[in-house]
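quick one, two chains, predict together pls
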Amino acid sequence: MGWWLRGGRGGEPRRGVGVLAALGCVLALGACSVPGAGGAAAGQELPGGRILRPVGPERVAEHGRTTLRVLADSGEREFLKRLVARFEKKYPNVRVEVETKASTDFFKTIVTTMSGEHPPDLVQGNQGYGVDGQLVRAGLLRPLDDVSHAYGWDLDHPGGTTDQLRWTPDGTLFGSGSLYGISQSNEYIGVFYNRSKLSELGIRPPHSWAEFTAGLRKAKEAGELPLQLGNADQYPAEQLLGTIQAQKVPVNESRAWINGVPGTTFATAGNREAARELRGWARKGYLGTGYNGVSADDAVSKFTAGKGVFMIAGSWNAPAVGGKLGDDAGFTVPRTADGRTVAAGAFGLPWHISAKSDATDAAVAFLGMMQSRTGAQAMADAGRLPVVTDGVDMPDRLGRQQAATGKRLLLGDGQTYYFDWASHSMLATIGSATQDLLTGRLSVGAYLRRIERDRAGFLAEQEAKTRGRGGGS
Amino acid sequence: MTASRARLRAWARRQYWPAYLYLLPGAVVYVLFVLRPLLMTAWISLFDWDGLTLGTWVGPDNYTALLTDPRLREALLHSLVFLFFYALVPVAAGLVLTALMVRVRIRGLGVFRALLFVPQVLSTVVVAVSWRWIYDPDGPLNGLLRAVGLDALARSWLGDNATALPAVGLIGSWVMCGLCLVLFLAGALRIPRELFEAARLDGAGPVREFRTVIVPALRGETGLALVLTVTQALRNFDIVWNTTAGGPGHSTTVPSVFLYQDAFVSREVGDAAAIGIALTLLTLTVCGLITRVLREREG
C-alpha cells in the first residue's frame, strides 16, 4: 500500500545518484541569491513629470489610445462601475480596465503585484506600515504632492486629515512627509440603533456619550441585549475600545501613539480608563454572552433581526443595516462631554499611482475625477459615504445621518485612526488581547502592557533597520 | 578510488539509459514545483526579509527565535490536540464503523459511502461557515440542548476559551471520518470471506473478529489514513482561520496561523519560511515514525 510503506530494496546506489542529480538540478534552478536583490528601482524624478494644473481631456488625448489598469478591493466594484462610465465619457481615448479582488486576497497579493514588471497604474493600498509603508519603502508609489497642490486637495482636507497618507520616502516614518495616496471614501466607527426598540424602551436617540451609556443601562434593566457584538474575527472589539477611547483621549495623542512618536505609550491614564470601561460593559452583560464566537457579519444580521438595541460598528455597514431595518435604522457618533465629535475612523482604502506607470496623466485625471463632486456622488450612489458631502445626494435617511456626522468629524479633524496601524502585528495582538480582556483572562494592566510591548518591539526593529541603511534609501 | 570508479562504470553500463527519458517530464515538474520552492523557502528562512526590499542574512536566528517563542510552543500544543481529533478519532471511528458495516449488510451502502465522503469534497471554507452556524450561541446545537432541557450546557462553543479548541477539533474529525471510512471499506472488501468464516468457526465474537481479522488486514489502509490525517492535522489552517482566527485569545492558534500572519500581515517572510520548514520537517518525521512502526509490525 503506497510507496511510503515500502523500503527501497536493492536500489541503494541508484537512489544515491538520483538524489544527487535532483540536488544538482535544484541548486542550478534555485539561484541562491539574496532574496529581493535587483528588485525595486526607486526613481529620483517624479514619474510622468510634475503635474502643475488639473489634467484635462486635451492633455490626456495627446497620449492617443491609452489603457488605464486599475486594481482594487472588491468592495469598490459598485463605485468604480459608476465612476469609470463617467470617466470614459469625458476622456474618450482612455479605456479603464478594472480588476477587483476580495479583501483577504487583495491584501495578501497587493505588495507583490506592485513589485512586478508591469504593475497596474492605479492601485489601492491600506494605511499603516503593513501595506502602504511597504509600498513606499520599496519605491513603488509615485508621490502625489504636486497633484494635491494642482487640484487643491490640501485645501479640501483641513488639519491633519491627510497625514494618514504621508510617509518619509524611505517608508519608515508614518504620518509626516510626502503625500502618497488619496481617498474619496470616509469611514468611521459609530453607534447604530434600532429606533423601534428605542421607543419601546422609552430611550431617546443618544446625542452625547452620557445619554448613550444611560441608554445601555436602561436597555439592560429592561432585559434587552444592550449592544450587539460579534467578535470571532477579533477586530470588532478593537473598534469598541476605539470608540470608548476616543471619548477620553485627545485625538492627537492617539495618533501620535499610532504613528510611533517616541516617548508615547499605550499605558496612559485615558487608555486605562477606556479599557476598564470596556471590561465593565462585558462584566455587566451589556455585550451578552458568546460574542467571541460570533462573526461580525452574523452580528449585523442578528442586529437587523431585532437582537440588540445598539451596535457599535463601521459606517460601511449602513447598506446591510438600512437594507433590513429601513427607516428603523439610526446612526450617530455620541458627542464628548465638551461637545466634540470624535471617533475611531479614517479614510477608506487609499488610492495610489504606481511609480512604474506609463499612463500617469490618465491616472491623475482619474483621481482628479474621483476626488471631485462627480466622484463623491458616484460613491454615494454606490451606497457608501464620500469624503465630499456638500451638494451630494445621499440615498436614504441613514446615509444623510452618516454624511452629517462624517462632515462634522472631518471639519473637527476628529478621527483617531485605528490602533492596528501601529505595527505589523498589532491587528493580531490587539485582537486576541481584547478577547482576553473581555473574558477577564487579562487584567487591564496586563492588557495595556501586552499591546505596548508589541509596538515597542516593532519600533525597535524599525529603528534598527533605518540605522542599518544609514538613513539612505 | 579506482575500485569505486570501476564499480560506477560497471553500474553505468548496466543501465538502459533511454528509460530515464520517460522519467524526465515528471522529474522536471517535481523539481520545478516541489523541490525548488521547498529549497528556496529553506534559503529564505535564513534571512530577515520583508518580501520586497533587499533581505539581510541572519543565519539560524529565525529558527532560534522560533524555538524560544512561547506563543509557538502553545500553538504546537494545540496541534497535538488536533492530532487526536483529526487523526486518532477518525481512524478509530472509521475502523469501528467498517467492522459494523462488514457484519451487517447495509442496503444502499454506496449512497452512505458517498454521503460520508461529502465533507472531504466540500471546500473547507464552506465547512467552516456551516459549523460556525451550528456552534452559534443561537444556533441549532444550542437549540437542541435547550429543547431537551440541558440549558446549562448551551454556550458559545467557539467563543468560550474552554470549548473552542475541542469544538474546532470535532469539525476536523467530521471532515476526516468519511475519508477513513471510504479507505477502510475499500480495504475490507478485499478481505477473503474465508477469513471471517474461519474466525467465526473458532468462536470469535465481534470484538475478537475486529482485533484478529479486520485491524491486521487493514494495516496498509490504516497507515495511509494516518499519514493523510496527521498531515492535515499538523498543517491545519483553513478551518481554524475561518472559525476562530486563532481566538478567543490564543486558545486555538496553530503554527500555520503564525505562518500566515508573518508572511501576509507582518511581512516577516524569513520567520514565516522558518515556521514552514520546521513544520515540514515535523510532519515528515511524524509520518516517517508512523510508517516505520507499522512496517516493523508487518515484518
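The two ends of chain A are 57 Å apart (CA to CA).
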